[in-house]
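stage 2 :: seqdesign
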């Protein structure tokens, strides 16, 4: 099983980034896919979710990112994306991809996003 994030980097406030998480080794469509983030000195927090195929992939967002971030899946390539627009300094964090089905959870290694002028 692998979850490999990419797409992080340095961006100015108000800018955009698209994170990718390439999944392999498990039945991608049957897992809920989520993005979390962890800022320095803070606990890891949930950002966005995409439900699994049984619920037709509903999406959910933390209030702090609602209207600015969009989670989506490429069900053929087994990739989950996080489109981040109107980025703020407080979005700076390591972003992690997560896959969960019942009690089975997988994590990626994380990708750094830094929002700074």
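stage 2 :: out
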């Amino acid at each position: 099983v692998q979850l490999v994030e990419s797409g992080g980097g340095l961006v100015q406030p108000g800018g955009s980034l698209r994170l990718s998480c390439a999944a392999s080794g498990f039945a991608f469509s049957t897992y809920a896919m989520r993005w979390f983030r962890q800022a320095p000195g803070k606990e890891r927090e949930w950002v966005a979710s995409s439900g699994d195929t049984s619920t037709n992939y509903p999406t959910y967002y933390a209030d702090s990112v609602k209207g600015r971030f969009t989670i989506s899946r490429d069900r053929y390539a087994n990739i989950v994306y996080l489109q981040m627009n109107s980025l703020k300094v407080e979005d700076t964090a390591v972003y992690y991809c997560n896959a969960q089905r019942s009690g089975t959870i997988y994590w990626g290694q994380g990708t750094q996003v830094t929002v700074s002028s």
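stage 3 :: structure notes
- The two ends are 37 Å apart (CA to CA).
- The chain is about 0% helix and 55% strand.
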